[in-house]
Design goal:
Helix content is 38%, strand content 17%. The chain is of the alpha/beta class. β4, α6 and β5 (124-126) form a beta-alpha-beta unit. The protein has helices at residues 3-12, 26-35, 51-60, 73-79, 88-93, 107-119, 129-146, 157-170, 196-200, 204-209, 214-221, 224-237, 256-259, 305-313, 338-348, 391-397, 432-451; strands at 17-22, 41-47, 83-85, 99-102, 124-126, 150-152, 175-182, 274-279, 296-301, 324-329, 360-366, 375-377, 384-390, 406-410, 425-426. It folds into 3 domains: 3-155 and 335-348, Rossmann fold, CATH 3.40.50.720; 158-184 and 223-332, no CATH class; 360-451, Antifreeze-like/N-acetylneuraminic acid synthase C-terminal domain (Type Iii Antifreeze Protein Isoform Hplc 12), CATH 3.90.1210. The strands form 4 sheets. A 6-stranded parallel beta sheet has the order 3-2-1-4-5-6, sandwiched between helices. It has a 4-stranded mixed beta sheet with strand order 8-7-9-10.
Length: 452
């Protein structure tokens, strides 16, 4: 609760936190806007595959050209400006930089960036949650081995949900479930980048004005991102994934305590201690008032008569039994909130969420009937969507993680809505991301087999 005071101290002492940003797309641009308004921060360098695109975003969010006119990282450090290039290796290797923010949205590249940061002895905030979903546990493990911090990004829903879970547990409440909201109907599974804005509620013109990538936003709509973010929440909190995937029950914020109970008590959960996603639409597609579409929530339990009485005395919203209550954050502001992670990692030495186990996975699942020779195009595309699965089941069935279903060719047919397996594809086993995932499977599989 004193991050801002600590930032002011660093600013007064002329010792700003020195940040390196990889990827200046939508999320990165949002942080670029806020960093100009945050004391005690010096964004030393930006690395982007397209510096021209990065410049467009810098101008869009109000940067003066002189601020990113540095001729080198050394020049940026000397004059308090920012160096823009396409050389992420130089950024990670710069000794003066305190923390790296990985904002590419490319899970294969993100893994390489994280590993390089560990090798350089640098903490990294991984905005690319798609990478965390398939290898977050091993990334957190390797960061610990390297003596650095690996963190989820505050502003994205997983870190915000982890914050609520931590709050509930630190208060002494048993956590029954946690998750995020979403706009969901079953036929959204079939959405493609061509249809996304029809469902999302924006025109193509509005989306273009905001620099919004249709494939990325379709990954939210078709259920991939909810699965990805639910996996990140599960692995960072120790909660479990539902055996049949996310149910997306419809409800308002006040319905959460009633929905997020075990089925035996009238709720939707297989058991206590799971992740789930609440939809803002009824099954008929009607909007639900006071929804949690853009937010996160935690449902917890009064495990004594005394706490149940407190719930009643303070007139909080509970389920009909008075046993279950929820707390929530109705909105998340994405890259506008990333500064919390930057400050927490550097000033407190604490991540804003990181995997502590391997409980959940996201399986690449056929969006349509696929045939040999088809090229998988990753989350939000035309060929696959992501389905949340317990990690133990995913490893046992050999499911291909969604984060690795990028430019991978099928060698066998896969029916619509079937999970794709490793044996269904020809994949480059030498890729760092593939090797890392295999290492994660080898690390956790023996433990899982003992529990079988």
């Amino acid at each position: 609760m004193n991050l801002y005071a600590k930032l002011l101290e660093r600013n007064a002492a002329r010792r700003p936190i020195k940040v390196g940003l990889i990827g200046a797309g939508k999320f990165g641009a949002m942080y670029l806007h806020q960093v100009l308004r945050t004391p005690g921060i010096h964004l030393v360098g930006i690395a982007d595959l397209s510096p021209a695109r990065a410049i467009e975003n810098l101008k869009r969010v109000g940067w003066d050209e002189q601020r990113y006119a540095a001729s080198s990282l050394e020049d940026a450090l000397k004059h308090g400006t920012t160096f823009l290039s396409d050389d992420w290796q130089a950024l990670v290797g710069c000794d003066a930089i305190d923390v790296i923010a990985e904002c590419t949205g490319n899970p294969i590249a993100a893994v390489e960036h994280c590993l390089a940061a560990f090798a350089a002895g640098k903490p990294i905030i991984n905005v690319t949650v798609e990478a965390d979903a398939f290898c977050g546990p091993i990334l957190a493990h390797k960061a610990k081995q390297a003596g650095v911090i690996y963190s989820l990004a505050y502003g994205d829903q997983p870190a915000l949900a982890c914050d609520l879970v931590d709050w509930a547990r630190a208060c002494g409440f048993p956590v029954v479930a946690a998750g995020r909201g979403h706009k969901w109907l079953p036929h959204y599974r079939e959405s493609t980048p061509e249809t996304v804005w029809d469902h999302w509620g924006l025109t193509a013109e509005q989306a273009a004005r905001g620099g919004m990538n249709p494939k990325m936003f379709n990954a939210f709509l078709d259920g991939s991102k909810p699965a990805i973010e639910s996996a990140a929440i599960a692995n960072a909190t120790g909660l479990e994934a539902p055996s049949q995937g996310l149910a997306f029950p419809p409800g308002s914020v006040d319905d959460i305590p009633t929905l997020m109970r075990p089925r035996a008590e009238g709720g939707v959960l297989e058991a206590k201690g799971q992740v789930e996603v609440v939809s803002c639409l009824t099954s008929d597609g009607e909007p639900i008032a006071n929804d949690i579409r853009k937010g996160v929530w935690v449902c917890f339990e009064a495990d004594s008569d005394y706490v149940r009485n407190c719930f009643e005395e303070y007139k909080v919203v509970t389920d009909p039994s008075g046993r279950y209550m929820s707390s929530y954050k109705k909105w998340h502001l994405i890259g506008l909130e990333l500064g919390i992670s930057v400050a927490s990692v550097v000033l407190r030495g604490e991540p804003t969420g990181a995997a502590i186990c391997f409980n959940a996975d996201v399986a690449a699942t056929a969006k349509r009937d696929l045939k040999p020779g088809d090229m998988l195009d990753g989350e939000g595309g035309y060929t696959v969507y992501g389905k949340l699965a317990p990690a133990e089941a995913s490893l046992a069935q050999g499911y291909l993680p969604l984060g690795l279903a990028h430019q991978v060719r099928l060698v066998r047919p896969v029916a619509k809505d079937a999970c794709i397996t490793w044996s269904d594809v020809a994949i480059d086993e030498t890729l760092p991301a593939v090797r890392l995932r295999r290492e994660q499977e080898a690390l956790y599989a023996p433990t899982m087999s003992r529990h079988a």
